[in-house]
Amino acid sequence: MSGGFRVVGPLPDPVGWRGAAVLARDRQGRVLMQLRDDAAGIVAPGKWSLFGGGIEPGETPELAARREFREETGIDITADALHPLVMFASQARIDGVVHVFTLDRRVETGDVTLSEGAGFGFLTRSQVAQFDLIENFRGILLELEDF
């Protein structure tokens, strides 16, 4: 089930919901994050998160990550630019699992056309430690040796 992802913590069994997210950075190594809005039905409103979302029926985690990233940022990424990083249980959905990919190309502010969320930013390690992030994302980001 891990498919090249490092599994962090116990995963639900069975898995009912699956999501995918993309860890992208700029030339300074800062992480691209979305400030979640407070629209009805939004999970973790007002928190910072990686860009991503639910995996649709018939989609692989990689296809979902590419689709969600394109829908939310306007940035098209190729399959060979994504690499599995971690997989963990969703904090928001009791039966959920999130697959996180790293993007091997750099993204800059001018590349992003935000279509979902209240905003976006490129966060430093100290900002990730201090800002109101979804905790699982904070944990994996602070574990990165090159961040």
UniProtKB/TrEMBL annotation:
The family assignment reads:
Belongs to the Nudix hydrolase family.
At the top level, the lineage of the source is: Bacteria
Looking at the record, the residues that make up the Nudix hydrolase domain are 15-146
Pfam family, any one: NUDIX
Name the UniProt key words of this record, in alphabetical order: Hydrolase
Q: From the Swiss-Prot or TrEMBL record, what is one GO molecular function term?
A: hydrolase activity
Name assigned to this protein: NUDIX domain-containing protein
Q: Which InterPro entries match?
A: Nudix_hydrolase, NUDIX_hydrolase-like_dom_sf, NUDIX_hydrolase_CS, NUDIX_hydrolase_dom
List, separated by semicolons, the cofactors it needs: Mg(2+)
